[in-house]
Description:
Elements: H1 10-16, H2 28-32, H3 46-58, E1 61-73, H4 75-81, H5 84-104, E2 108-113, E3 116-121, H6 130-153, E4 160-175, E5 181-185, H7 187-198, E6 204-207, H8 208-218, E7 223-226, E8 235-239
Parallel strand pairs: 4-6
Antiparallel strand pairs: 1-3, 1-4, 2-3, 4-5, 6-8, 7-8
Helix pairs in contact: 5-6, 6-8
Zinc ion binds next to α1 and α3.
Amino acid sequence: xxxxRSVICKGCWQQLRLPILLRGPASAxxxxxxxxxxRMNPNTCTVCELMFTRVMRARKxxxxxxxxxxxxxxxxALSEKLSPEDVSELLDAFYDECAEAIWSHDGLLNKxxxxxxxxxxxxxxxxxxxxxxxxxxxxxxxxxxxxRAGALAGSQGNVGVGIGIDSGEVSxxxxxxxxxxxxxxxxxxxxxxxxxxxxxxxxxxxxxxxHDRALADVGAATASxxxxxxxxxxxxxxxx
Length: 240
Ligand SMILES: [Zn+2]
C-alpha cells in the first residue's frame, strides 16, 4: 500500500512558502519545465535537489540530523536458495518498505548500498522531532517488511532487518572524486552504521543521543555496552 503523497513540495513550502505542485492535473505546467518529485523524497521536488546541490557546491554545511542505516540480514544465504526473480523481488520489497517508512516520516532516502539503506532525517525537510521520526520509521520497517518477506522467502529461510540510528551534527555536501555524491559524512554516520552492524535481525539499536531526544515519544530503553570498530571506548546502545 503506497503512502499518501504530498500534492505540493514540502521543501519549497517550508523554505520558501512556494506552492510547487507535484501531482495532479495542475502540476502539468511544472512538469513541462522539468519540476518533478525528487527520487530521494517524492514529497520534495527536483528544484529542492538542485537548490541544495548548489548551496553545497559552494560550501559544505553542518546540519543537525538523525542518520538511519537498515540492512537486510540473511540475504546472502537466501540468495543462494531462491531464484534470481525471487531475490530481486525480495530486495525490491525491502527498498519499498524502507522508502515508504522513511518518506512517511519526512526523511531522505539518501543511498542504497548493496543490501543496506541510508536515510537522513531533518534534511531538506526540517523537523524538530527528527530523532523520533527516525525511530518511528525504523519501527514501521520492522513491522511491515517481515509481512512481505515471509510471503516471498517462504520456507527457504529467515530474512530480517537490522537497524542502527544516531543523531548529531554531520557535514552535508558533495563528496567523492570519481562520482560526486550528495551525502552526509561524520562520526554520526559512522556510529549509525556501526550500531546497525551490531543489531540482530528484527532489532533497532539507537545511541544515547537518539534515546535522549526521542525518549518522551518512543519510551525508555535499556542500554548495553558495545565495543565498536573505530571507537576507543565501549559505546552504550539502546534497543528501541
Ligand atoms: Zn521543492
